Amino acid sequence: MPTLICPLCRTPLTLENKSQRCANGHSFDIAKEGYVNLLLVQQKKSKEPGDNPEMVKARREFLQAGYYQPLCNAASQLITPLNAKSLLDIGCGEGYYTQAFSHIVADIIGLDIAKPAIQLAAKKHPNMTWLVASSALLPVADHSIDVATSLFSPIPVAEMARVIKPVGHVLVIRAADTHLWTVREALFGEVRAHHPDKFLEELSPHFTLQQQQDLRFDLQLPQQALKQLLAMTPYVWKAHPERRLALENHSDFNTTAAFSLMLLRKH
Ligand SMILES: [Zn+2]
Is residue 255 pLDDT above 90, yes or no? Predict the structure, then answer.
């Protein structure tokens, strides 16, 4: 298991009586659900950072219904040949993809700044390591991770380079150009294409693109699933409420999911 490090003094943490402690006496309790909260007060920009419970619940239900199963499969297929022993899922949410990766990789750490998401993940999948933590300072030891994943989550490039082993990988997944085009059209009228490639430049100081895969599939959404999709999508709150209401009135809605999967190798 990769060593966790203290978010205050960066020395190794060891498990002692239901808490994680460092040599300098900093101690972090293990919650009854089994996760550890390593988020420092000074790292919180709000009282409850990250996705709120409603967003977490909507995403959980939407993903459990299998709408993004093709993406989960494609991501797993990219990770399998790497023969990784350890994986850090940055911004793992309630652990839908993280859990799938646990069938391929032995040691998995799921990390998210949102406590409600980690609580849900830890309750549902107790045999994995779940951390409430900031991605800006990854609480794992140098060169201890084979693969870091970021699915629609932050990309702390320098921290990723620090924690990944010399021959390690990063999997970044982002919405591609036409992702949910008809949904965005209904919400905003005018739609701009997503540009997932822009993240490659940020990563280029430490990582080389090894494989880029485009994944597209149709989504036929009953009203309930459409509402969940809107509730879990961060930019929706910017839409005019009347437009959102009109969209939510559809009993069925067809759209397309489009993702870019980018596998990079450390250099
Ligand atoms: Zn410490």
Answer: yes
Within a domain: 4: no
- Determine the 3-state secondary structure of 21 from DSSP: strand
Hey, is 29 helix, strand or coil?
strand
Nearest CA among 229, 215, 231, 150 for reference residue 177: 215
Answer yes or no: is pLDDT of 33 > 80.
yes
Report how far ligand 1's centroid is from the alpha carbon of 38 (Å).
Answer: 11
Q: What is this structure's pTM?
A: 0.95
Q: How far is the CA of 10 from the centre of ligand 1 (A)?
A: 6
Residues whose Cβ atom is located within 5 A of ion ligand 1: 6, 8-9, 22, 24, 26
Number of domains in the chain: 1
* 160, part of any domain: yes
Q: How far away, in angstroms, is 109 Cα from ligand 1 center?
A: 20
Q: What is the pLDDT of residue 29?
A: 93
Contacts of 72 (CB under 8 A, 6+ apart): 96, 97, 100
21 Cα: distance to centroid of ligand 1 (angstroms): 7
How far lies 32's CA from each of 119, 120, 122, in Å?
A: 9, 12, 9
From ligand 1's centre to the CA of 162, what distance in Å? Answer: 19
Domain boundaries, position 170 = 14-266
Work out the burial of residue 97: count CB atoms within 10 Å of its CB; fewer than 13 is exposed, 13-18 middle, 19 or more buried: buried
Q: Is residue 122 part of a domain?
A: yes
The span from the CA of 57 to the CA of 108, in Å, is 23
Instruction: Provide the percentage of residues in the chain whose pLDDT is more than 70.
Output: 100
Task: Supply the CATH number for residue 137's domain.
Answer: 3.40.50.150
Which range has the worst mean pLDDT, 11-20, 36-45, 202-211? 36-45
For residue 30, tell me if it sits in a domain. Answer: yes
